[in-house]
Amino acid sequence: MTPPRARALDARFSVYLDGARACAALAVVVAHFGYFRIFDDVQIARIPDFGREAVITFFVLSGFVIAYSAEHKNLTARSYAVARAARLFSVVLPVLALSFILATCVHDMLHAPVEEAYELRRPWLYIPFHLAFLGDVWHFVERPPWLIPYWSLDYEAWYYVLFGVFHFLSGRRRWLAAGAVLALVGPRLWLLLPVWLAGVALYRLQGRLTFGPRLARAGWALSVILVGLWGWLDPEPWLRGVAQGLWPFAHIRMGSADRVLADYAVMLLVLLNFACARQAGFDLLLRCARPIRFLAAHTFTLYLSHGIVIGLWQSVLPIERGAATEIVAVGIAIALVALALNPLTEALQRVLRRTFDAGLALGARGLGLGA
């Protein structure tokens, strides 16, 4: 049975979620400054790396927002499919094109090394492959050139499909379709599905989680402290070893799912943080709503495109590791690219919405299902 419809989001909590999205995107960028060796060794040791924790925050947040959207905005399977596809491809199409074009120029003209350069020789194969979000299904562990964060889309896109199957289908069709999707994507994507579904569960159960503002603020503060302790103690390497030891599919690499046990722990901290923030009464957020909304609107392009900026910069210009001027310059370049891409992605999203909607309507008429 379909669960009872939850209430619309409180304005303060909506702004809080936007702020969490913006902070998570910035955390990923900072983490990749360490990964790509823009920071020096001392900075890497001193600056906490919360990149993976930020992605888990995205997963929980995505499940929550998609569940809300399906009940309050995209009320039919067609509108849901159109909204999700248009949102994903409006950013993926231009960023993936930039990735392959610029990486090819760097590899062929400058003869500089490019990770995943073998994909550049067969773009006709790998671009559709990545557009289908197949990079983590079964045996595959594939990333587009310079687009390290793309792995999370390979998970999230299929979670959108699974949610749509369960939300809009019923009876035997629901279970057959869900089984087919799970069989297609393979065991790595099964592991992180509970993280995404935790966001859905939080949305469904939020009406039952009621407690006063004082307790909520104390719980929120506790979650922040626990996240700080998590980063300081860093139990992830040990948990990763445990997860790899428990992995039953010896012939399949764990890939991006090898941190699954740590991801579950972080998921619980994020759930605590969100559940408490919803009832904490953070009125000050409403005064900062405009800049928070502005930052949140650019998070997807920032998240996906910053690796291109870093990869291109390192291929063209030498970087003095740890130099403040270099760090600031690369950061400004990343911000400018995200700002420049956003109007393009918004315009493309409108075009894709109309195109996908018209295509689905035509397909429905062809099958005799009505408009």
Write a structural description.
- By secondary structure, the protein is mostly helical.
- It contains 15 helices and no strands.
- It has helices at 11-35, 41-46, 51-72, 77-109, 123-131, 150-168, 171-185, 187-205, 213-233, 236-246, 260-279, 284-287, 289-297, 299-316, 324-366.
- The protein starts with 10 loop residues before the first helix and ends in a 5-residue tail after the last helix.
Rg value: 21 Å
Proportion of β residues? under 5%
Order of helices and strands: HHHHHHHHHHHHHHH
Average predicted confidence as pLDDT:
92
How many alpha or pi helices? 15
Q: Give the overall shape.
A: globular
Kindly report how far apart the N and C termini lie. 26 Å
Give the structural class.
Answer: mainly alpha
Largest sheet: none
Overall strand count: 0
In short:
The chain is mainly alpha-helical and 371 residues long. The protein contains 15 helices and no strands.
What's the topology here?
Blueprint: H1 11-35, H2 41-46, H3 51-72, H4 77-109, H5 123-131, H6 150-168, H7 171-185, H8 187-205, H9 213-233, H10 236-246, H11 260-279, H12 284-287, H13 289-297, H14 299-316, H15 324-366
